[in-house]
């Protein structure tokens, strides 16, 4: 946006201003640096203040960061510091919200609700593109202050809205607040507290939590211990986030306008960006169904194949066509880039966008869940930061061939998922823990059946028989 470039760019020597690749990288990546710190920081608040309390705290921090950005006049330092502070909240909430959703949702709906989390993110990105498209030609700071300042409203909305939601019943049980957990479970299932269903669910959860939480206070080092295959689970969460960030979609999200301008498509780059945002929203909707119909494992395997093909074709065809001196050939090359960028983003939105967050929210025992999710989220934001910092510099040198990097990562992702990522569809969080403890091979995990709840019910029946024997 011209006003933004004038305020935060550098003189171009011709009486105008330019936002160099270095400044673009600094402004964009500082938010990602904050998200990395915030994702780790939430682990210290999630257990101490509960899931609700943590969401409130980090929402306030995010709102402060967006306020600092909106109030910036022409200070590059102020806007980058504001983005870093806002990033603290974004990173923390990116870990707490899947954690909260995963602990609160019934297992039959957990995948769908965690995909809904991703859908809301994509809808937000799409709305931001539309707002940018509508304001970018305003010849004043309104062009960028409106998109930045509107974030304050959403921060305040989350700060206030969290008071109307229940605390995680698993967190309550894990901290000995059984009466409150009973009340929450009754509310979530729409039945009275004395309903037999509530007693059964509380008993099953308490039995499983006690089984998985033996060993005292959890530490960060335990996330990588051999106990209950925790090191495998933590590594899987981190690797899925690493692969997700190097899928290539965030390159389009962050630098699409600049990249498509260089591609000489003849289309307004911000219009292309808005199209990509709409495609993302459209693509995430089928994931609400596929996450439970196909499962987690098949979804990411399919996505890796489709996205890899898009990256390969767009990278090679775009490179050779754009290298031509023929304007018509250049335009065709740009059209190819846009077409396969759309297909790439569509495939990502259906598969790799939501599934890693679903997996992260359902793979860890309660005692280390906040810490393990923090490590996965922090990995996501670390590579988000590295991508946002280095991508514009790499693309400036090799152009569309940067997509070949993403192609290689998607091939690696397919192999990794096949060898190491098990299917968790239809399992409770406690049954996922049982599957890992049983050492089930990932390629056989879809047909595995849990026994944990059977043991809990058998114990419950045995206790009832003992009580009957002891009664006069």
TrEMBL record:
It is a multi-pass membrane protein. The chain crosses the membrane at residues 25-43, 55-73, 79-100, 112-131, 143-165, 270-291, 298-324, 336-360, 372-392, 398-421. It catalyses: myo-inositol(out) + H(+)(out) = myo-inositol(in) + H(+)(in). Residues 1-425 form the Major facilitator superfamily (MFS) profile domain. It is found in: Membrane. One of its GO terms (molecular function) is carbohydrate:proton symporter activity. Its main location: membrane. Keywords: Membrane, Transmembrane, Transmembrane helix, Transport. Gene3D superfamilies: MFS general substrate transporter like domains. The keyword Transmembrane helix applies. Belongs to the major facilitator superfamily. Sugar transporter (TC 2.A.1.1) family. This is Major facilitator superfamily (MFS) profile domain-containing protein.
